[in-house]
């Protein structure tokens, strides 16, 4: 759908402050974050992929004693993250080429994976696998069905895409993850489609 997918990084770079203000700090997704956190070991290292400003999700998990590494393709977002969470780790990085050479006790890609084109989403699951410790939970959001949708950010086109739910299940299974829970268009989470999976014990 046009070249909107290729403009995502630039869009979040130019509108980082506006997005942060619009996002706010209310943890509307708390039920899912709590469920994810219940699966984490004590003081787990958590990789937040597409971390944005770090507030409220990374801040909430850090408040629970977990050690956060935030990764975002926007240097401006990472700057805000470092201001919000100076005690945590943050770095600029594109999730499509992420290679941190370590594994984490939990991974989150909340409202980030769905900004990738379908072909890029398909390759991300091996990246999740390569960064997950045995039994690590993985939490991410998608669309409810295969397709592409254009939203807006500060009046500019904002790309979203989703694979079919059966394909997500196949990709998770192929990369060693079991689905723990999945809700399409969860009415208690702003209509998001949410996936919670766990890496199998090797």
TrEMBL record:
Pfam family of this protein, just one? Answer: Methyltransf_25
The biological processes this protein is annotated with in GO are: methylation
Q: Which InterPro entries match?
A: Methyltransf_25 (IPR041698), SAM-dependent_MTases_sf (IPR029063)
Domain named Methyltransferase is located at 46-133
Does the record bear Transferase in its keywords? yes
Molecular function terms, GO-annotated: methyltransferase activity
**Keyword match Transferase:** yes
Task: For this UniProt record, give its keywords in alphabetical order, as a comma-separated list.
Answer: Methyltransferase, Transferase
Q: What is this protein called?
A: SAM-dependent methyltransferase
Species annotation: Rhizobium anhuiense
